[in-house]
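REQUEST FORM: STRUCTURE PREDICTION
Request ID: SP-0412
Submitted by: Lab K.M.
Chain count: 1
Length (residues): 263
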Amino acid sequence: MSSPVSTTALAWLGRSAMRAVGGVGALALVAGRTAWGLRRLERRELTRGLVQFGYGSLPLALATAALAGVIVVVQAALYIQRFGARAFLGWAAGYGVLWEFGPLLLGLIMSARIGARNAAELATLKVGGQIEGLRGIGLDPFALLVAPRVVAMEVSMLALSTFTFLVSILCEAVAAKLTLDLPVRVFFGTFAQMLSPSDLLGGVVKTGAFGLAISLVSTAVGLRAKGGARAVGEAAASAVVLGCAAIFLLDFLLTTLLSRVLA
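STATUS: Completed
RESULT:
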């Protein structure tokens, strides 16, 4: 005869498994309907998304990239000085930004800033009945509201990654000069000699995957909102938590896969 504790644990596992399956199904549905809606993309909503997601996030993304570059050099300096490998700082710092810190920090920023807003806006429309209203008059809410946000997020993430990578690497070179007195030509010498285009490709692939995950997760969470104003807040919070979890999971999977494919 099973104990009450084991019965409760099994019930909890069952509910968790059902929620996970439901979440994966919701993501698959949003992805499929969004892909179908790309043919009738609402250009005005796309333009609004590009301005809001990309241009509006540029100052925060650049500031974070600059700080991340300085922090990477300061942390790396502890090991560089210990092992006498100052000449390799350009390669190590550049590799860290292109492969890991750049895409990861940009993804977390966009999940908190855009994912939460995206989920809150769609949840407000859902609980207010506007989503059902669009369906009632024969319009596809995925083509009007969801597909433009997914495309805008992808374009914004890839554009922002270009600027953030450049700013972060430039700040790394300046920080290396100020903290280790490492000449800028030495920093960029090892950067150019030891890094390959595949290293940049790895960062771009990660950034694109993170952007797709943020847009799909926040959209699915917003469209599943039920209830009143409280559901809007819960959708925004869930979008941030689930978006960050998806980013870390994708980071692990892509790092493992790309390191083998691009090596």
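NOTES: The mean pLDDT is 84.
Reviewed by: T.R.
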